[in-house]
Every structure is written in structure tokens, then in C-alpha cells.
Amino acid sequence: MAEHPIYSIVMEMENAKSIDWNEIGLGLKSLAREIAAVSATGFARPKVVVSHGGPDSDGSLLQASIEAEAPELMQVADLTITACPDGRYYELKNNGVLLTEGDIVVFLDSDTVPQPGWLSNLLQPFQQPQTVCVNGHTYLSYDDFFSRTFA
Fold first, then answer.
1. 3-state secondary structure (DSSP) of residue 15
2. Superfamily of the domain at 7-150
């Protein structure tokens, strides 16, 4: 395996029509920061695949919205938008995988904000050829009834 394996990121946008762009924008900007940090260590520019549940015709509007909200993401990654009409969460993820490049696929939910060091910590174990899978941590806020129910 190469010193720095090629990776892609798949992000589902199950809720693309009803998302809060302030919330999603924060996550996209954080993702761009994480990609820039690992690229500075020698990783190649990744492909970010956004898989949404609407028709193909929604793709150009979604791409324009992402580019407007987080232009820094376009500077560090190649963005691909793909539709999976009426796709649900896991269907969207599986649909996105079809367009990835490289040996590593990183899954990211569109409504999360990557924490500093997240991507480098996730990719680091792949420097060892015996590594086949890693996962990150999930933290749930519990500051209201709904979030306490899930936490």
C-alpha cells in the first residue's frame, strides 16, 4: 500500500430539501479544514461524493448551494453530486460508494460537524497494511427532550 492511500468521502443528504444551511455549512467548512490538514501531510486531494434522495435535476442546485456555503471545500476536494431518488439513509450511502475513488471510503453524515483531528485520526491506521476498517466516535447532545431520548 502507498505511504498515503487514496481516499474518498461519502456524505448522505437525506434531508437535502429541508436542511439548515447554517448548520450544514458549519460541517462543510469543518470538513474542508480537516481535508486541508491531512493533505498537508501528503494525502492526495480526495473526492467528496454527496448523495441525495431527490431527482437528478436537484443536483446542480445542491452543488451551487454547497459551493456558496463552503467555497473552501472546492479548494481542497473534488465534489461530485449523485442522486438516489427517494433513497433512504443507507441507500444514499451505498449509492455514493459507487462513485468513490481509492482504497478508503470515509462515511460522513451531512448533519455532523467534524472535530479537529477527526480525519487524520481516522486515516492514520491505514498506514498499516493490515488495517481494513476503522470507525469514529458518535456523540449525542442531550439538551432537549428529543436528543435525550436518542442519547
1. coil
2. Spore Coat Polysaccharide Biosynthesis Protein SpsA; Chain A (3.90.550.10)
